[in-house]
Design a protein that fits this description.
single chain; 196 residues; five-stranded mixed beta sheet; 44% strand; elongated
Length: 196
């Protein structure tokens, strides 16, 4: 197809049998290749003592579409944008492209200059639908060291599974981006199917 959408034509066969001609209708649909962007996670949270720079946290940008995803500008904005920074190890850069089914990563750090809530966002322009995409950055500046927890996935989705058989395991990475030890006091499964 040369154009997206429904396409139709007909095949006509001329012959020496009765009727002289036979025809068959042809129909199809043209589908344009398009990129699609995904960010995981979409929010980063930090707790950091004033002035030292936090450990960088990671966000994965994925192209779940069928064409190359071209990244445009990467802009930190918001009230305390100057306290957040794109750190070394970042592979998503302005002007580059991410292949279909490919991914790249952002590394972002936080250096608070005052106590309390410190907020910003990272706007990412691109050639997929919904541009720009936004990453929320939430930080807390503290006078004393505090832990801060973040998970690399907000949801885990398992494929259909035969009853009474165990699926393959999936992982969630817990990161302490604070400046004090993070201590776990319990792990609890809840919900109507928690025993599964």
């Amino acid at each position: 197809p040369s154009t997206a959408g429904p396409r139709s034509a007909a095949l006509t066969v001329t012959h020496n049998a009765a009727g002289g001609q036979s025809s068959t209708s042809l129909s199809g649909t043209g589908v344009a290749l398009t990129p699609a962007i995904g960010l995981s996670p979409t929010t980063l949270s930090y707790s950091q003592t004033i002035n030292p720079t936090s450990v960088a946290q990671t966000v994965t940008l994925s192209n779940t579409g069928t064409a190359a995803l071209v990244l445009g500008t990467l802009t930190l904005g918001g009230a305390q944008a100057s306290e957040f920074a794109i750190a070394s190890g970042t592979t998503c850069t302005a002007g580059t492209s991410v292949a279909a089914n490919g991914s790249c990563v952002f590394k972002l750090s936080f250096t608070p200059t005052a106590n309390g809530a410190r907020n910003a966002s990272l706007a990412i322009t691109h050639n997929a639908a919904g541009s720009p995409s936004s990453l929320t950055l939430n930080g807390t500046g503290t006078a004393t060291a505090q832990p801060a927890i973040s998970l690399n996935a907000a949801t885990l989705t398992f494929s259909s599974q035969v009853l009474n058989s165990a699926s393959a395991s999936q992982s969630v990475v817990v990161t302490n981006s604070g400046s004090a030890t993070l201590t776990f006091s319990g792990l609890t499964l809840t919900g109507t199917a928690a025993t599964d």
